[in-house]
Amino acid sequence: MSETAVPVTTLASASTSASSLKTRGRGARISLGALQIVLGLFYAFASALPKLIAHPSAAEAFDKLGWGSTGMYLIGALELAGGLALLVPLLSSVAAVALGALMVGAFVVNVTVVHGPYVATPLILILPLALIAWARRDRTTELVRWVRRRV
Predict the structure, then answer these.
(1) How far is Cα 131 from Cα 126, in angstroms, rounded to an integer?
(2) Among residues 48, 40, 45, which one has the least CA distance to residue 132?
(3) pLDDT tens column, 25-83
(4) How far apart are CA 43 and CA 1, in angstroms?
(5) Model confidence pLDDT, tens digit, residues 96-113
(6) Which string of b and e fits 31-42 if b means at least 16 CB within 10 Å?
(7) How far is residue 6's CA from residue 39's CA, in Å, rounded to a whole number?
(8) Is 133:97 a contact under the CB 8 Å cutoff?
(9) DSSP the chain
């Protein structure tokens, strides 16, 4: 066996594994971006919009909580801001953390006050938000650097 046979084989397997890692990384980035878009649109349209236009179902729910229209508009504005921020690369991680905190609050309210059929929904939404926050954590570092340069 010649000395050149081993490195060529090693190089071929290394380039194959590097190629598969690169493809897998690209697929993960695309999937994560698609998840951010879906969640951003969900929060902006399906969650925030009914609150911001005072849809009767949202108004009734907030009246039942005793928060009235002020609480409804505030939560709707926070969800809209978070949903749109998920679509901005520099803000995506911070937005995911903020929306995750909002979902923790929604879960607590659902369990303690509402006792409705959608108690698990905030918990289900926390999982992809946590994934986005973790996977895009480097964006938080970029954001902090950007803010420090501006101050």
Answers:
(1) 9
(2) 40
(3) 899 999 999 999 999 999 999 999 999 999 999 999 899 889 999 999 999 999 999 99
(4) 62
(5) 999 999 999 999 999 998
(6) ebeebbeebbeb
(7) 49
(8) yes
(9) --TTHHHHHHHHHHHHHHHHHHHHHHHHHHHHHHHHHHHHHIIIIIIIHHHHTT-HHHHHHHHHHT-HHHHHHHHHHHHHHHHHHHTSGGGHHHHHHHHHHHHHHHHHHIIIII--TTTHHHHHHHHHHHHHHHHTHHHHHHHHHHHHHH-
Structure token pair of residue 138 = 């480097």
CB count in 10 Å sphere of residue 59 = 16
Report the C-alpha gap between 8 and 76 in whole angstroms. Answer: 60
Indicate the burial class of 103 (C-beta count within 10 angstroms; 0-12, 13-18, 19 or more).
Answer: buried
| Chain Cα centroid distance, residue 14 | 34
Note whether 86 and 36 are within 8 A (CB): yes
